[in-house]
Amino acid sequence: MLPWIKSDGKMLNISALVLTYNEEANIERSLSSLSFCKEIVIVDSGSTDRTLELAARFTDKIISHRMEGFGPQRNIGIDSASCDWILWLDADEEISGELKESIIGIPVDTEFAGFCLNRQTRYLGKWIKHSGWYPQYVLRLFNRKFGRCRDVAIHESISLQGKPGRLKGDIMHYAYRDLAHHIEKINNYTSLIARQKYDKGRRFNLLKLIFAPPAEFVKKYFLKLGFLDGLPGLAIAVTSAYYNFLKEIKLYEFSRIK
User: Fold this and answer.
1) pLDDT single digits (tens) 234-250
2) Of 160, 178, 221, 225, which is most buried, counting CB atoms within 10 Å of its CB?
Protein backbone atom coordinates (compact mmCIF):
# COMPACT_ATOMS: atom_id res chain seq x y z
CA MET A 1 0.00 0.00 0.00
CA LEU A 2 1.04 3.57 -0.57
CA PRO A 3 1.39 6.21 2.15
CA TRP A 4 -1.13 8.98 1.47
CA ILE A 5 0.30 12.33 2.53
CA LYS A 6 -1.12 15.60 1.24
CA SER A 7 1.97 17.75 1.24
CA ASP A 8 0.48 20.92 -0.26
CA GLY A 9 -3.25 20.64 0.45
CA LYS A 10 -4.01 20.12 -3.25
CA MET A 11 -5.75 17.18 -4.88
CA LEU A 12 -6.06 15.85 -8.37
CA ASN A 13 -8.68 17.36 -10.66
CA ILE A 14 -10.80 14.37 -11.58
CA SER A 15 -13.56 13.82 -14.13
CA ALA A 16 -15.85 10.96 -13.10
CA LEU A 17 -17.22 8.89 -15.98
CA VAL A 18 -20.44 6.86 -15.69
CA LEU A 19 -22.23 4.93 -18.45
CA THR A 20 -25.99 4.64 -18.05
CA TYR A 21 -28.95 2.77 -19.46
CA ASN A 22 -32.13 2.57 -17.39
CA GLU A 23 -30.33 2.89 -14.05
CA GLU A 24 -32.92 4.83 -12.05
CA ALA A 25 -32.61 2.36 -9.15
CA ASN A 26 -28.86 2.97 -8.78
CA ILE A 27 -27.87 6.29 -10.29
CA GLU A 28 -28.43 8.60 -7.30
CA ARG A 29 -26.40 6.39 -4.97
CA SER A 30 -23.58 6.19 -7.49
CA LEU A 31 -23.41 9.89 -8.37
CA SER A 32 -23.74 10.98 -4.74
CA SER A 33 -20.48 9.17 -3.98
CA LEU A 34 -18.65 11.23 -6.63
CA SER A 35 -19.16 14.64 -5.04
CA PHE A 36 -15.40 15.11 -4.59
CA CYS A 37 -14.79 15.04 -8.37
CA LYS A 38 -14.50 18.25 -10.38
CA GLU A 39 -17.14 17.04 -12.84
CA ILE A 40 -19.28 14.04 -13.69
CA VAL A 41 -19.63 12.93 -17.30
CA ILE A 42 -22.63 10.74 -18.16
CA VAL A 43 -22.76 8.77 -21.41
CA ASP A 44 -26.28 7.40 -21.83
CA SER A 45 -27.30 4.84 -24.44
CA GLY A 46 -31.02 5.58 -24.63
CA SER A 47 -32.54 5.32 -21.16
CA THR A 48 -36.33 5.26 -21.10
CA ASP A 49 -36.81 5.48 -17.32
CA ARG A 50 -35.96 8.37 -14.94
CA THR A 51 -32.18 7.89 -15.21
CA LEU A 52 -31.49 11.14 -17.04
CA GLU A 53 -33.88 13.15 -14.88
CA LEU A 54 -32.10 11.93 -11.74
CA ALA A 55 -28.62 12.32 -13.24
CA ALA A 56 -29.36 15.95 -14.15
CA ARG A 57 -29.47 16.75 -10.43
CA PHE A 58 -25.74 15.99 -10.26
CA THR A 59 -24.36 17.10 -13.62
CA ASP A 60 -25.25 18.94 -16.80
CA LYS A 61 -22.65 17.03 -18.80
CA ILE A 62 -24.87 14.28 -20.18
CA ILE A 63 -24.09 12.79 -23.58
CA SER A 64 -26.58 10.62 -25.45
CA HIS A 65 -24.98 8.11 -27.78
CA ARG A 66 -26.20 4.86 -29.29
CA MET A 67 -24.43 1.87 -27.73
CA GLU A 68 -21.66 0.64 -30.03
CA GLY A 69 -19.78 -1.33 -27.40
CA PHE A 70 -18.69 -0.59 -23.83
CA GLY A 71 -15.13 0.30 -24.82
CA PRO A 72 -16.08 2.87 -27.50
CA GLN A 73 -18.79 4.26 -25.22
CA ARG A 74 -16.28 4.90 -22.43
CA ASN A 75 -13.81 6.47 -24.85
CA ILE A 76 -16.50 8.96 -25.87
CA GLY A 77 -16.77 9.97 -22.23
CA ILE A 78 -13.00 10.14 -21.81
CA ASP A 79 -12.71 12.44 -24.82
CA SER A 80 -15.49 14.67 -23.46
CA ALA A 81 -13.94 15.11 -20.01
CA SER A 82 -12.25 18.36 -19.03
CA CYS A 83 -9.74 16.77 -16.63
CA ASP A 84 -6.82 14.52 -17.46
CA TRP A 85 -7.57 12.23 -14.53
CA ILE A 86 -10.56 9.96 -15.15
CA LEU A 87 -12.43 7.97 -12.51
CA TRP A 88 -14.54 5.30 -14.18
CA LEU A 89 -17.48 4.10 -12.10
CA ASP A 90 -20.37 1.89 -13.16
CA ALA A 91 -23.89 3.06 -12.36
CA ASP A 92 -24.41 0.14 -9.97
CA GLU A 93 -21.30 1.04 -7.94
CA GLU A 94 -20.40 3.65 -5.35
CA ILE A 95 -17.17 4.94 -3.84
CA SER A 96 -16.75 4.02 -0.16
CA GLY A 97 -15.72 6.68 2.36
CA GLU A 98 -12.30 5.09 2.85
CA LEU A 99 -11.65 4.99 -0.89
CA LYS A 100 -12.77 8.60 -1.26
CA GLU A 101 -10.19 9.67 1.33
CA SER A 102 -7.50 7.67 -0.45
CA ILE A 103 -8.30 9.34 -3.77
CA ILE A 104 -8.36 12.81 -2.22
CA GLY A 105 -4.98 12.08 -0.69
CA ILE A 106 -3.18 11.31 -3.96
CA PRO A 107 -0.37 13.84 -4.43
CA VAL A 108 -0.70 15.93 -7.59
CA ASP A 109 2.83 14.95 -8.57
CA THR A 110 2.17 11.21 -8.19
CA GLU A 111 4.56 8.90 -9.99
CA PHE A 112 1.70 6.63 -11.08
CA ALA A 113 -0.18 6.76 -14.39
CA GLY A 114 -3.24 5.16 -12.81
CA PHE A 115 -4.58 3.32 -9.77
CA CYS A 116 -6.19 -0.05 -9.21
CA LEU A 117 -9.20 0.06 -6.90
CA ASN A 118 -10.56 -2.91 -5.00
CA ARG A 119 -14.18 -3.84 -5.66
CA GLN A 120 -16.52 -5.63 -3.27
CA THR A 121 -19.79 -7.07 -4.56
CA ARG A 122 -23.10 -7.50 -2.74
CA TYR A 123 -24.84 -10.71 -3.77
CA LEU A 124 -27.99 -12.34 -2.42
CA GLY A 125 -27.99 -9.96 0.53
CA LYS A 126 -24.35 -10.46 1.52
CA TRP A 127 -21.05 -8.69 0.87
CA ILE A 128 -18.86 -11.35 -0.73
CA LYS A 129 -15.41 -11.86 0.81
CA HIS A 130 -14.13 -14.85 -1.22
CA SER A 131 -15.27 -16.89 -4.27
CA GLY A 132 -12.76 -15.17 -6.55
CA TRP A 133 -14.86 -12.02 -6.26
CA TYR A 134 -12.82 -10.43 -3.48
CA PRO A 135 -10.27 -8.99 -3.45
CA GLN A 136 -10.79 -7.84 -7.03
CA TYR A 137 -8.54 -5.00 -8.14
CA VAL A 138 -9.65 -3.11 -11.24
CA LEU A 139 -7.93 -0.17 -12.95
CA ARG A 140 -10.51 2.59 -12.59
CA LEU A 141 -8.57 5.81 -11.94
CA PHE A 142 -6.07 6.86 -14.60
CA ASN A 143 -4.46 9.75 -16.43
CA ARG A 144 -5.95 9.78 -19.92
CA LYS A 145 -2.61 10.92 -21.34
CA PHE A 146 -1.45 7.39 -20.61
CA GLY A 147 -4.64 5.33 -20.84
CA ARG A 148 -7.36 4.34 -23.25
CA CYS A 149 -10.26 1.92 -23.00
CA ARG A 150 -9.87 -1.24 -25.06
CA ASP A 151 -12.44 -1.75 -27.81
CA VAL A 152 -14.02 -5.04 -26.71
CA ALA A 153 -17.63 -6.20 -26.50
CA ILE A 154 -17.59 -6.86 -22.76
CA HIS A 155 -15.32 -6.71 -19.70
CA GLU A 156 -13.61 -3.68 -21.16
CA SER A 157 -10.48 -2.45 -19.42
CA ILE A 158 -7.94 0.35 -19.62
CA SER A 159 -4.74 -0.10 -21.58
CA LEU A 160 -2.28 1.87 -19.45
CA GLN A 161 1.12 3.13 -20.55
CA GLY A 162 2.80 3.46 -17.20
CA LYS A 163 2.93 2.11 -13.67
CA PRO A 164 -0.30 1.65 -11.67
CA GLY A 165 -0.59 2.01 -7.91
CA ARG A 166 -3.21 0.68 -5.48
CA LEU A 167 -5.53 2.55 -3.16
CA LYS A 168 -7.09 1.68 0.19
CA GLY A 169 -10.85 1.33 0.35
CA ASP A 170 -13.42 -0.35 -1.86
CA ILE A 171 -15.77 0.30 -4.73
CA MET A 172 -19.09 -1.03 -3.45
CA HIS A 173 -20.76 -3.01 -6.23
CA TYR A 174 -24.52 -3.68 -6.24
CA ALA A 175 -24.28 -5.95 -9.25
CA TYR A 176 -27.57 -7.85 -9.27
CA ARG A 177 -31.08 -7.06 -8.06
CA ASP A 178 -31.77 -10.76 -7.58
CA LEU A 179 -30.87 -14.16 -9.00
CA ALA A 180 -33.08 -13.67 -12.06
CA HIS A 181 -31.17 -10.47 -12.87
CA HIS A 182 -27.88 -12.38 -12.53
CA ILE A 183 -29.06 -15.09 -14.94
CA GLU A 184 -30.25 -12.42 -17.37
CA LYS A 185 -26.81 -10.78 -17.34
CA ILE A 186 -25.08 -14.14 -17.78
CA ASN A 187 -27.20 -14.81 -20.86
CA ASN A 188 -26.46 -11.39 -22.36
CA TYR A 189 -22.75 -11.44 -21.56
CA THR A 190 -22.12 -14.96 -22.84
CA SER A 191 -23.78 -14.08 -26.15
CA LEU A 192 -21.49 -11.06 -26.53
CA ILE A 193 -18.38 -13.01 -25.55
CA ALA A 194 -19.19 -16.00 -27.77
CA ARG A 195 -19.80 -13.70 -30.73
CA GLN A 196 -16.53 -11.87 -30.09
CA LYS A 197 -14.60 -15.16 -29.87
CA TYR A 198 -16.27 -16.52 -32.99
CA ASP A 199 -15.45 -13.39 -34.98
CA LYS A 200 -11.82 -13.78 -33.90
CA GLY A 201 -11.69 -17.35 -35.19
CA ARG A 202 -12.41 -19.37 -32.04
CA ARG A 203 -14.57 -22.43 -32.60
CA PHE A 204 -16.54 -24.85 -30.47
CA ASN A 205 -14.46 -27.22 -28.35
CA LEU A 206 -16.23 -30.27 -26.91
CA LEU A 207 -13.59 -30.86 -24.23
CA LYS A 208 -14.01 -27.30 -22.95
CA LEU A 209 -17.76 -27.77 -22.86
CA ILE A 210 -17.34 -30.92 -20.75
CA PHE A 211 -14.53 -29.95 -18.42
CA ALA A 212 -14.51 -26.13 -18.08
CA PRO A 213 -17.81 -25.80 -16.13
CA PRO A 214 -16.96 -28.32 -13.35
CA ALA A 215 -13.41 -26.96 -13.17
CA GLU A 216 -14.81 -23.47 -12.65
CA PHE A 217 -17.09 -24.73 -9.88
CA VAL A 218 -14.16 -26.35 -8.07
CA LYS A 219 -12.08 -23.21 -8.48
CA LYS A 220 -14.73 -20.83 -7.14
CA TYR A 221 -16.14 -22.99 -4.35
CA PHE A 222 -13.03 -24.73 -3.03
CA LEU A 223 -9.83 -23.07 -4.27
CA LYS A 224 -11.23 -19.54 -3.89
CA LEU A 225 -12.94 -20.47 -0.58
CA GLY A 226 -16.45 -19.80 -1.83
CA PHE A 227 -17.84 -22.13 0.83
CA LEU A 228 -16.93 -19.44 3.39
CA ASP A 229 -19.47 -17.13 1.74
CA GLY A 230 -22.30 -19.48 2.66
CA LEU A 231 -25.19 -20.09 0.29
CA PRO A 232 -24.29 -17.04 -1.88
CA GLY A 233 -20.85 -18.63 -2.37
CA LEU A 234 -22.47 -21.83 -3.61
CA ALA A 235 -24.68 -19.83 -5.97
CA ILE A 236 -21.61 -18.02 -7.32
CA ALA A 237 -19.83 -21.32 -7.98
CA VAL A 238 -22.85 -22.82 -9.76
CA THR A 239 -23.59 -19.75 -11.89
CA SER A 240 -19.90 -19.42 -12.77
CA ALA A 241 -19.97 -23.00 -14.07
CA TYR A 242 -23.14 -22.18 -16.01
CA TYR A 243 -21.45 -19.08 -17.44
CA ASN A 244 -18.61 -21.23 -18.82
CA PHE A 245 -21.07 -23.76 -20.23
CA LEU A 246 -23.06 -21.08 -22.07
CA LYS A 247 -19.95 -19.45 -23.54
CA GLU A 248 -18.93 -22.71 -25.20
CA ILE A 249 -22.35 -23.97 -26.28
CA LYS A 250 -23.08 -20.60 -27.90
CA LEU A 251 -19.93 -20.99 -29.98
CA TYR A 252 -21.43 -24.26 -31.19
CA GLU A 253 -24.68 -22.46 -31.92
CA PHE A 254 -22.92 -19.76 -33.97
CA SER A 255 -21.11 -22.40 -36.05
CA ARG A 256 -24.41 -24.19 -36.74
CA ILE A 257 -26.03 -20.92 -37.86
CA LYS A 258 -23.15 -20.34 -40.26
Assistant:
1) 999 999 999 999 999 99
2) 221
